[in-house]
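To illustrate the input format used throughout this study, we show a single complete record. The first block contains the structure-token representation of the backbone; no residue identities are included at this stage. The design step must infer an amino acid for every position from geometry alone.
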């Protein structure tokens, strides 16, 4: 079930650790769901649910780092905090390269975990907002004809109408017409906004 409230997904095969983490996070006013394995988590998680994932490294079957990679493969964008009782530098490097918010070695300060979870929630909110904006831009882009897309790319580069006309071998007035339609369909006020939209699409 998806809620607007961000959720901390705790994935750890140690029941005592899961319960302890859940208590600390809930006492801090944070929503928590716990899972005993990577497979259990992957079966239950909904990509639309905001929040973050707290993953233990050493688990039977798929470990935390492999789960982090599987999340990336599946397009699960939840920020990840990796926790372990057996941390080492290579594991930390792998976690951070895959986008982890932090790498905490047990026993760790619960207040630090709560702080990192809140940071992860904030990162997730920004990422989801950016993703929603990119989706809106792609929807508008689908409304453009192939020629209008060409004009948009050149307008976004800051090229004047005459230069665009020469590059596309069309009349300047035709460029003006296409430009006006592009701005209208993309809901942009000027070339700068088109350029920002192009950058957002490239980032996404």
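Output of the design step:
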């Amino acid at each position: 079930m998806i809620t607007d409230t961000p959720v901390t997904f705790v994935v750890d095969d140690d029941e005592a650790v899961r319960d302890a983490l859940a208590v600390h996070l809930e006492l801090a006013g944070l929503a928590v769901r716990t899972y005993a394995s990577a497979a259990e988590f992957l079966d239950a998680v909904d990509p639309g649910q905001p929040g973050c994932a707290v993953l233990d490294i050493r688990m039977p079957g798929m470990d935390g780092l492999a789960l982090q990679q599987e999340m990336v493969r599946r397009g699960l964008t939840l920020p990840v905090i990796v926790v372990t009782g057996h941390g080492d530098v290579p594991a930390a490097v792998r976690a951070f390269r895959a986008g982890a918010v932090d790498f905490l070695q047990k026993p760790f300060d619960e207040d630090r975990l709560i702080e990192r979870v809140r940071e992860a929630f904030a990162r997730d909110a920004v990422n989801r907002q950016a993703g929603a904006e990119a989706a809106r831009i792609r929807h508008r882009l689908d409304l453009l004809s192939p020629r209008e897309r060409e004009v948009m790319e050149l307008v976004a580069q800051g090229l004047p109408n005459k230069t665009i006309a020469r590059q596309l071998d069309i009349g300047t007035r035709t460029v003006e017409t296409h430009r006006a339609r592009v701005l209208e369909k993309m809901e942009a006020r000027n070339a700068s906004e088109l350029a920002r939209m192009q950058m957002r699409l490239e980032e996404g």
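Structural context for interpreting the output: The mean pLDDT is 90. The first strand starts at residue 7 and ends at 11.
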